[in-house]
């Protein structure tokens, strides 16, 4: 079997463009992969056009290790977010082809399942007025859908520090959310790399009474010593890793022991095998894996294939019940959270278990998507109302 070419489809919303890549073969099988780029979609498409000629066309889709190696190192320049995201789309699609050709789900090819279900947590649910009452209502709606966990960044446009008044307001938002979801549900606290270490530590202590399940990206991601400084002074687990695009670059993070949970984005890290390899390394450091997943149904399905086969997989992020829920129709067989358990049940369909509907995808043309975490109103994920 050989790859005859690829086709790309961009599904657009005001705050995110989702890039789908179909890999076509001479035996009629087609696989699909996906990533979400922030402000770099055209760069990704440009890279894929060159990579199709230089590396992809004519390749054997079963030889994913060889294809990834050539795409990553065959152009000599160091691979960054754009290249690793392009690799992820193609590599994921090849796994989809392998599973379809063999008639088994991808998790079966990764060593078999270790669980019958992967827990989910909700994100994108607080696209509402930024008040305790509005957040309380929105959080109750999340629980009503069967979720047992949710994540929130309550810090507005905070950057490096947060005033006393802004701190008290953030606390009031978290207090309202915890009241809405009850004592048993998990509440993940997101900081989006906003703060200096001292501020992150202070805020973590302010939030401690509401028992966050983790403290996510408390400081900007470039300085691991700053992250370690926070980890040494807080009692809650620390999570990070969505902005690391090469599993080799996680080495220093593991050595620092600064993270209890790593959050690779499969769509930026090079795909399914790269994420599974990272998870195995994390396991040797007694570290859990909870992938960043702001993509659509295909990226969710791919992350789940890894989750079903990974012993130290904690939980998977999910936007698609809340922000841009209508895009689910671009895929047939989109993963859904079981409202009785708050989990994604084990998929037994071949490959990723999903199919891209290109006609439906065409109903969501590429947009000038923009997402600015330091603009007022960012949490609505509506650029027209976010300080512009």
From TrEMBL:
Span of domain Mandelate racemase/muconate lactonizing enzyme C-terminal: 132-237
InterPro entries in the record: DgoD-like, Enolase-like_C_sf, Enolase-like_N, Enolase_C-like, Mandelate_racemase_C, Mandelate_racemase_N_dom
Transmembrane segments: none
GO molecular function annotation: lyase activity
Source organism, top-level taxon: Bacteria
Keywords for this protein: Lyase
CDD domains according to UniProt: MR_like
Designated name of the protein: Dehydratase
Source organism (scientific name): Streptomyces qinglanensis
Taxonomic classification: Bacteria, Bacillati, Actinomycetota, Actinomycetes, Kitasatosporales
């Amino acid at each position: 079997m050989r790859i005859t070419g690829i086709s790309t489809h961009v599904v657009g919303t005001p705050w995110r463009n989702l890039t789908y890549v179909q890999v076509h073969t001479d035996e009629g099988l087609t696989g699909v992969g996906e990533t979400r780029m922030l402000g770099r979609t055209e760069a990704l498409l440009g890279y894929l056009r060159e990579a199709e000629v230089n590396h992809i066309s004519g390749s054997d889709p079963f030889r994913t290790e060889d294809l990834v190696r050539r795409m990553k190192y065959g152009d000599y320049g160091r691979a960054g977010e754009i290249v690793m995201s392009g690799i992820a789309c193609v590599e994921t699609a090849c796994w989809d082809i392998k599973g379809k050709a063999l008639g088994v789900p991808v998790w079966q090819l990764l060593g078999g399942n270790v669980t019958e279900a992967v827990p989910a947590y909700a994100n994108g649910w607080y696209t509402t007025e930024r008040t305790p009452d509005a957040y309380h209502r929105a959080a109750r709606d999340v629980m009503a859908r069967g979720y047992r966990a949710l994540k929130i960044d309550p810090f507005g446009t905070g950057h490096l520090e947060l005033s006393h008044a802004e701190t008290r307001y953030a606390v009031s938002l978290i207090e309202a959310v915890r009241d809405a979801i009850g004592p048993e549900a998990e509440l993940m606290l997101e900081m989006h790399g906003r703060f200096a270490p001292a501020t992150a530590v202070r805020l973590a202590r302010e939030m401690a009474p509401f028992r966050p399940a983790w403290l996510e990206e408390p400081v900007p991601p470039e300085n691991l010593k700053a992250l370690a400084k926070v980890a040494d002074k807080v009692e809650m687990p620390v999570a990070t890793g969505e902005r690391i695009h090469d599993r080799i670059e996680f080495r220093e993070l593991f050595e620092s022991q600064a993270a209890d949970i790593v959050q690779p984005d499969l769509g930026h890290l090079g795909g399914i095998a790269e994420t599974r390899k990272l998870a195995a390394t994390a396991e040797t450091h007694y570290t859990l894996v909870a992938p960043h997943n702001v993509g659509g149904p295909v990226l969710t399905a791919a992350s789940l294939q890894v989750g079903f086969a990974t012993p130290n997989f904690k939980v998977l992020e999910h936007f698609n019940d809340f922000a841009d829920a209508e895009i689910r129709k671009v895929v047939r067989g989109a993963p859904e959270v079981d409202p009785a358990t708050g989990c994604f049940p084990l998929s037994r369909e071949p490959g990723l278990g999903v199919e891209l509907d290109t006609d439906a995808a065409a109903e969501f043309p590429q947009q000038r998507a923009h997402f600015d975490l330091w603009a007022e109103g960012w949490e609505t994920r509506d650029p027209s109302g976010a300080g512009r």
